[in-house]
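Predict structure. Chain length: 230.
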Amino acid sequence: MTTISANLQAVHARIDAAARKFGRHPSEITLLAVSKTWPASDVREAVASGQRTFGENYVQEALGKRIELADLGLEWHFIGPLQRNKTRLVAETFDWLHTLDRLDIAERLSAQRPDSRPPMQVCLQVNISGENTKNGVALAEVNALAQQIAALPRLTLRGLMAIPAPQEDEAQQRDAFRQLREAFLQLNNNGLQLDTLSMGMSHDLEAAIAEGATLLRIGTAIFGNRKNKL
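Prediction complete.
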């Protein structure tokens, strides 16, 4: 068994244990393997162990991997900050975008998404901890922006995403995720039909599952410590 295979098994065991502890079923939770900075060969190892969805932060690096792994028919999620000059590449290449936080970027993606492809699945990134160094829309602005994005063609708003400030204490981790879940529920109460809470990483996935995460973005626990950017 390869290290990546063993790591995937360990992550699934953590997900299963947390889901059952908090009264959820593991099938409600999607594992997104964050493969940024890792070579296509490592992605192939993960695929051999059953992993089909992968997250990337850097557009050019991801495009190279997607070409190299085109024979596998994988689902690709863009989870890094998106600059205006990269929107066309993302619109043409990726299945999902988790880091949408501006209307002008959404409008560009909507206009640039090829008609030959299904609508891009998107999550609105929320700056849940109010950090100046983090991207994301403020909680107070979530509803207005979500309604505008949901009205755009060629995009399907699926839910919310956040990267809270790191906390060692599980109660503090859960508090941040709870705020995102409450915003998510409010959007659905306001008429949107959202189904995705993209929250939780290697160090806090249990707290995220406790608060309703439906998609976990896991890198280090699968692939190991980060390598230098390819």
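Summary: The chain has one domain: 3-223.
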